[in-house]
Design brief:
The chain is mostly helical. It contains four helices and no strands. The protein has helices spanning 2-7, 12-37, 40-56, 67-104. It is elongated, with a radius of gyration of 20 Å. The termini are far apart.
Length: 111
């Protein structure tokens, strides 16, 4: 996955800096995502989405390891995790509504 992220950056300097950030913050981002989602696959998806979002705004990031940089990566993965969480809740709600419609529309005579 790192190769894909790096291919999205323009300069060799940005690629090197981003690779350092990836190595530094990937495990922290996973822990945060897992804490929100409680599902390893969804947490991995959130981390990937967090890194993609980070690349999108990478020009605004400090180009050194510091608390501000760490916070930006943490915020990216938190937002991605909450987006996934909300989407999943919405899908579960939609599935429940469909099930309820099926039950209420049952023609077998039982309710």
């Amino acid at each position: 996955m790192l190769i894909m992220y790096l291919s999205m950056l323009d300069t060799e300097e940005d690629k090197n800096i981003f690779e350092e950030f990836h190595n530094e913050y990937a495990s922290l981002m996973y822990k945060i995502a897992y804490g929100i989602l409680r599902d390893s696959k969804l947490a991995e998806d959130a981390v990937q989405e967090g890194f993609i979002r980070a690349i999108k705004y990478f020009d605004s990031f400090p180009k050194k390891k510091c608390p501000q940089t760490r916070n930006k990566f943490v915020n990216m993965v938190r937002c991605a995790s909450f987006d996934i969480y909300r989407k999943r809740k919405r899908q579960q709600s939609d599935s429940y509504d469909e099930l309820e419609e099926t039950i209420n529309g049952c023609v077998c005579g039982y309710r």
